[in-house]
Amino acid sequence: MDFNQLEAFLTAQTKKQGGITSDQAAVISKFWKSHKTKIRESLMNQSRWDNGLRGLSWRVDAKSQSRHSSQIHTPVAIIELEFGKSGQTVAEAGFELGILPSQPPKLLGLQACTTAPC
């Protein structure tokens, strides 16, 4: 609800018999303005059933060991994702993306973790 919708709703409530007073409408309007972000976050957290993405981190490393010597010192992107609801234990997933010479990028590995960093 944006501010114009709030004003229209409060105006209708003040004109309604047995509704709220204009002072009460002013207090509600002031409360809504000052707590709009908190109200929205609370409603979003209550309406979400599944886990959401809580964090993302990435870095680029140089491969130092490999089965094939041609892959040593090649760049590897390491991506770590954190999933969960607020106030709950976080599940983490990490994966590496590497580029091999003269080949398209490919997923090198997938690692699933729980509660501990990958």
From TrEMBL:
Tree of life domain: Eukaryota
Record Pfam families: COMM_domain, COMMD1_N
GO cellular component: endosome
GO biological process: copper ion homeostasis; negative regulation of protein localization to cell surface; negative regulation of sodium ion transmembrane transport; positive regulation of protein ubiquitination; regulation of proteasomal ubiquitin-dependent protein catabolic process
InterPro entries (UniProt xref): COMM (IPR017920), COMMD1_N (IPR033776), Murr1 (IPR037351)
Stretches assigned to the COMM domain: 52-118
Similarity section: Belongs to the COMM domain-containing protein 1 family.
PANTHER family: COMM DOMAIN-CONTAINING PROTEIN 1 (PTHR21199)
Protein's name in the database: COMM domain-containing protein 1
Organism field: Marmota monax (Woodchuck)
